């Protein structure tokens, strides 16, 4: 008796499933192949990369952001970054159209940046830019800040020299493409707070100092320090990963840049 | 006709006698409980991490924005494979749609879990469960020497085959329903909410190697579940046909099951080369990932879409069945 009942249930379930499945399969095919509905919501992919290739014009102000994740805006909950915030404030005082190009790569080091700058695809963007933001070096020094190995600290001088020569090349390359643009270099802050030792802080200071000296060689380039900006505002300015700035932090950097370039 | 129905019910009785449905039930129960527990654990951890570091209430909005940003950054890498680039673009589109329409894609619910389960098991778990039934359908008769008794009846051979095949199709339907029901019950207990009426974005099209996201549409979870499980049933039929034919060829249950498993695993390995070797897309086990075409989270390969995959699978199933029937008709049964 139970067996007969089971048999009946199984058959009925089977038939229902077959009918439902046929309808479902037809619907699935329809969904994936139906003709484009013009009234449907259009969601365009927002790509902020490489859009403008035209030469600088008076009515367009092109901002280029390159380097590592800080230049990219990683950590900003709103997905923007200091370049966008600066552009916002710049827009208020000008009638020009402001464009932001972001070619920064997360986790990049100075080697990568100098490669990107030498890239053929990059040079039209550099040529058309009025203002270039650079942030680099954080990923190189990060490994020293977190390692406890004293012997590795000896290697930092080599890394630093390599970094400085890379940065020098990057600046030279930019100048050979575009002699008029303003270059803004964003200095490094200390994301580790009191967790790192004094000698490592000195390394960071030295790194920032050498960078600033190099950047100052160019008459139309400026070094923006962020070390002081973050020192007492870590809780407020850093995002979930306690390494990258959050929206507030990026806004603070943008404000500082705005202050520096106010009367240029 | 009545003869055929009797044969089918006889076959179903045989399957039930072997207690295989109970075995499948046990497998499903164990695996689904493990999955649900894992999912629940990960989810709780993410939430705890978030509240700890942000000192605000858990909110999906910034997480999705952050996710989009990360994906955008990934797109900037030069050495990204073309297919990966496209699947990232679809994902970004999907997230943007969720943000725009205020749909929370991160929450957990029974419906969502059950849908994901079928998505993930379409290539391995579900086919394996089907093989348990289909793999020894004919070869089992050989190894237990009952084939002689079966064939001495005054019933044409094709009817015997037909009844065997149809009974497997019906059992496959039961397996698919079983999966859904167990998953719904287990995940309802784990996540506490059904979530059938939650909206979800689907409707991605690949045309000319590009993603067409212009006609994303919103459907409810329960509709989506029906669609996904229908596709699951289709996969079950295809696997049943192929596995059924193999069990005719080799007359040995163990061999027929291992051939099918090798094909399934081979397919998932082939998937890795599909970018460089387009011919691989004509292999059946590469096309088993049917639900992915609805979710939009797929690896884009030129010319592969739901219709293509279903045609490839159907051709494999039909060819396998015809070959199986021909062999069964011609062969001498000497047991």
Describe the protein's architecture and organization.
The complex is a heterodimer of chains A (264) and B (335). Chain A has 264 residues and is an alpha/beta fold. Mean pLDDT of chain A is 82; it is low at 37-56. In chain A, 54% of the residues lie in helices and 11% in strands. Chain A has one domain: Rossmann fold. A five-stranded parallel β-sheet of chain A has the order 2-1-3-4-5, with helices on both faces. By secondary structure, chain B is mainly α. Chain B has one domain. Chain B is built from 13 helices and four strands. The longest helix of chain B is centred in the N-terminal third of the chain and has 35 residues, at 20-54. The radius of gyration of chain B is 23 Å and the shape is elongated. The model of chain B has no long low-confidence stretch (mean pLDDT 83). The chains are: A alpha/beta (264), B mainly alpha (335). At the A-B interface, helix 1 of A face helix 1, helix 2, helix 3, helix 4 and helix 9 of B.
Features of the shown structure:
heterodimer, A: 264 residues, alpha/beta, Rossmann fold, five-stranded parallel beta sheet, 12 helices, 11% strand, B: 335 residues, mainly alpha, two-stranded antiparallel ribbon, two-stranded antiparallel sheet, 13 helices
Which word captures the global form of chain B?
Answer: elongated
Total domains of chain A, how many?
Answer: 1
- The beta-strand count of chain A equals 5
Please write the string of helix (H) and strand (E) elements of chain A: HEHHEHHEHHHEHEHHH
Task: Pick out the low-confidence regions of chain A.
Answer: 37-56
Mean pLDDT of chain A: 82
**What oligomeric state best describes the polypeptide chains here?**
heterodimer
Quote the beta fraction of chain B: under 5%
Q: Unreliable segments of chain B (pLDDT under 50, ≥5 consecutive)?
A: none
Q: Major β-sheet of chain A, in short?
A: 5 strands, parallel
